[in-house]
């Protein structure tokens, strides 16, 4: 079992996300992260999906994804073939703000992006291990809420989508 | 300008006419009523067949599609009408049958509100369709239908569902129909790689024991002639899958039988002895391969296949040749050397004789009391036309009819392969018959399965479709009973049936019928049935506890096929 990042490029068609997830559900493969966004090309969407599976399964999954009529192309990568980031937000009570916390924030290259009357929100961008580590530290500072995005990723191989768009 | 505008409902019908649809199967209801109203003005152009259940409509459309190679069309209402299609969609998807199904939907302002007869049909049918869409605006109707037909029939065919809201059916719009030839995100025909063809030819040219397995892909690519030419040039023996039957005449000297669980002895055993396995338009279904880990391990595998998903899915291909097999076979024919493999063919013949002695003679010319399903098929072969179509339901009768029916020409068999849908046979036979009234359509069903869609006798009565129905009545859910006998200590848990008087049912539907219980009456009864001008219902009471052999039991490898 390995971690893979799948990039799926699709037409903007209602229900496409549903069709895509059905393929994972059928094979009992858990999606551990998913993000959707626009791509470089107008009107074409990209989904970044993280899964843990085998070398054999990933090929079949990607083939099955490409068989969906409104999928233009799907690629899969191992972690060293993509540049990726995730964003994490941490909400803490104002009362937790002290020099100790400020030091942690600096140490993790995180920053305060919002300061309200009762709480502050800290943002950190990075890989899961790092944002997770910060989370465990912030538990000591009475963290109230935590959210992390799925990964966004661009590929290292120099292929582009153009050739699939004739 | 308004006078050039027509209702969405009429656009639906005009689009079907533009796609040259001449026959469609359906069932009306509230949410599709505008389309049925529009249809009333077009009954001279499209023949609508009112089935007795929506499942009957979709199976009939499947039967129609399978014998004709055209897109089968059915049309039903929202809610229960649409959900009754689900089995047929799943069946058509797994057996790659081109269908366009049109479902009515509640008005768009009611979507998502649990309105009367509203169901999320697009959601329900998503895993069972090649493509589906909901149309809520009149201007989107014709483009959706055009795209739907293109997707259903191109590449690896499959079912498409188009859900049209009632307000879109009522709204006025312009009709102009543009056939679809291209969808940007969809590449139905991968280019055949010439280097792969060259590699395949090289393997074939050096093979001592080559073996071809052909499937339904040959029919769909209309590559029957290319297959035959390839076999003849290379002298390669060939065996078929369930759905591939008919692509090559069984009279051909290189035809060596059928593959899989209840296929023939020789091709199953020799799969594990060939040196080059050439799979053409087939997908290595588990019913064909038995235990995968012991399947053709000794052989180099060449796989000619249109769908990239099928390559390396079950059996790893040493030489995958992606693309339309008509094209790849033509290219291969040029590159292979003329050859013959008589000794290798003799190995098939020897094993075939073993099967004949142990199984076939007892099935076809039995001497003990109790009619066999096989002897019924033997008489069918004696009296049928060469291009007669065999439609079967699912069970023992399906396997026996497939094993013994003499397939002589292409598109002569319709059965539910991948899904194994009981209840498929009768409506599919109706659909196959309505494609061509002059062709013999012989429907073989079991006493269990016929009761799942028996209401379609009503459609046969109304259309007078001259289907010849043969009910092989063993008073059991025979196939399940066989497994209970073999693997569950004969504990016949809920497989024995108390059956109705089937002849009375046929009579109630005004279908001419007869019943055979004695061997001496069989031949004449089959002959009479096939000579009859019109639908006919023949019930044959067969032995209650007969079994289908040969058999590859679950978990066994193809060469462990049992003769008893
Ligand atoms: C819709 C459906 N339900 C259940 C089954 C499981 N099944 C496969 S064959 C069979 C028995 C069929 O009995 P019958 O129609 O009498 O045919 P026979 O095997 O006796 O020839 C059953 C129950 C099925 N294939 N399809
Ligand atoms: Mg039965």
pLDDT averaged over residues of chain A: 94
- Give me the secondary-structure category of chain B: alpha/beta
Tell me the CATH topology of the largest domain in chain B.
Rossmann fold
Largest interface: A-B, 19 and 19 residues
What radius of gyration of chain B results from the CA coordinates?
24 Å
What class do helices, strands and sheet pairing of chain A give?
Answer: alpha+beta
Question: How many separate domains of chain A?
Answer: 2
CATH-assigned fold name of the largest domain in chain A = Alpha-Beta Plaits
Largest sheet of chain B: 6 strands, parallel
- Beta-strand segment tally of chain A: 9
Q: Averaged pLDDT of chain B, please?
A: 97
- In the CATH hierarchy, what is the class of the largest domain in chain A? Alpha Beta
Q: Explain this structure to me?
A:
The complex is a heterodimer of chains A (166) and B (564). Chain A has 166 residues and is an alpha+beta fold. Helices cover 27% and strands 41% of the residues of chain A. With 564 residues, chain B is α/β, with parallel strands linked by helices. Chain B contains 22 helices and 20 strands. In chain B, strands 3-2-4-5-7-6 form a six-stranded parallel beta sheet. A six-stranded parallel beta sheet of chain B has the order 11-10-9-12-13-14, with helices on both faces. A six-stranded parallel beta sheet of chain B has the order 16-15-17-18-20-19, sandwiched between helices. In chain B, α19 links the parallel β17 (441-446) and β18. The longest helix of chain B has 23 residues, at 342-364. Chain B is globular. Chain B starts with 5 loop residues before the first strand and ends in a 23-residue tail after the last strand. The mean pLDDT of chain B is 97. Classes of the chains: A alpha+beta (166), B alpha/beta (564). Thiamine diphosphate binds at residues 393-397, 420-423, 446-449, 472, 474, 476-480 of chain B.
